[in-house]
Amino acid sequence: MSEIKTIAVFTSGGDAPGMNAAIRAVVRAGIYYGKKVYGIYRGYDGMIQGEFEELGARSVSHIIQRGGTILKSARSAEFRTKEGRKKAYDNLKKFNIDALIAIGGDGSFRGLNIFDQEYDMPSICIPGTIDNDLPGTDYTIGYDTATNTAVDAIDKIRDTALSHHRLFFIEVMGRDSGQIAINSGLAGGSVAILIPEEKTSIDELVFKLHQTAKSDKKSSLVIIAEGGKSGSAMDIAKQVTEKFSYFDAKVTILGHLQRGGKPTYFDRVLASKFGVAAVEGLLNGVRDVMTGIQGNKIVYNSFDVISKLKPDIDHESYRISKILSI
Ligand code: F6P
After folding, report:
1. Would residue 131 show up in a list of annotated catalytic residues for this protein?
2. 178 Rama sector, left if φ>0, alpha if ψ -120 to 50, beta otherwise
3. Which of 2, 49, 77, 204 has the smallest set of CB atoms within 10 Å of its CB?
4. How far is the CA of 172 from the centre of ligand 1 (A)?
5. pLDDT at residue number 75
6. Which residue's CA lies nearest to atom 5 of ligand 1?
7. Alpha carbon of 15 to ligand 1 centroid (Å)
8. Which amino acid residue places its CA nearest to atom 9 of ligand 1?
């Protein structure tokens, strides 16, 4: 394998707090090891359009604490075509890029996997998504911050819910994943958590609300992942209130506010470790892997292995939330 002299980094898919800390880590680690580092703007779309810029140690100053991504992000339909990938490869050659580091979710690593098979391009993916729904890592960058943001909002809603004896249906992000719902629901003391991975019937939910109201509960918070099997927070609120009118009911959709904001210390540290691991991995001949953290150890899992695995939820938190929400 020829020596890697130039690395390019980009962010792709939904942005996540801590992506900037990961960009900073990749750029600085690359320079530390004597390499040139380019940033590619707007993910795979920018790779196709040739939006490249060489980054120095100072171009990533003052971003470790910032949400979003200085490299911007996009979901690219063109990169899914052979022609799109050919244009991207031609641009990488123009800038003498020898290796790629993507920061993003499953779409990002699937893209890199195909690209390496077609063009023999060493690449490593850093898991960055608020959903925490990637196999091969206990945590993805952004999940801790997004879950803390959700918990903060839930706490605020609790104050008003209790003051008015109300029932709130709070929708959190996670189109295909209940991870934010489970742990923000547990930390926020919710009465029930509805997730895409498991069906909860309206009758079950109504039964629980009746039971807790009978035991003198003065207000209730139900947390619903946006992709919940039982419907959106609006649908569920409508169906529940037809059968349960003990409390006045309200709906709050937290939406994209969960994607922004200052990354927590946890996400900054995780991003820094992943960024350095990605650069060191490439320089040591590791390729076609995603960095991960498992049991507090940084690991590399091959694209082939993780693409065959299904993401899992935090079953223990989910179980505990049911015990504690009586
Ligand atoms: O994958 C991260 C995520 O925030 C999901 O939780 C959410 O369903 C989706 O992205 C929203 O995507 P967009 O910002 O494109 O609407």
Report:
1. yes
2. alpha
3. 2
4. 11
5. 85
6. 174
7. 9
8. 175
Q: Residue 101 forms beta bridges with which residues?
A: 9, 124
The reported pLDDT for the residue numbered 139 is 98
CA distances from 14 to 6, 19, 90, 259 (A): 26, 10, 26, 8
Residues 124 and 114: their CA atoms lie apart, in Å, by 13
The verdict on the CB of residue 173 being under 6 Å from ligand 1 is yes
Residues 88-100: tens digit of each pLDDT: 999 999 999 999 9
What is the CATH class of 144-259? Answer: alpha beta
Active-site position among 15, 98, 106, 131: 131
Question: For the whole model, what pTM was predicted?
Answer: 0.97
Q: What is the pLDDT of residue 91?
A: 98
CATH 3.40.50.450 residue spans of the chain: 6-142+263-308
Nearest ligand 1 atom to alpha carbon 180: 6
CA distance 225 to 313: 13
**Helices (H), ranges, 52-178:** 82-94, 106-119, 143-164
Q: According to CATH, what is the number of the domain 6-142+263-308?
A: 3.40.50.450
Nearest residue (CA) to ligand 1, atom 13:
14
Tokens of 203: 């009758």
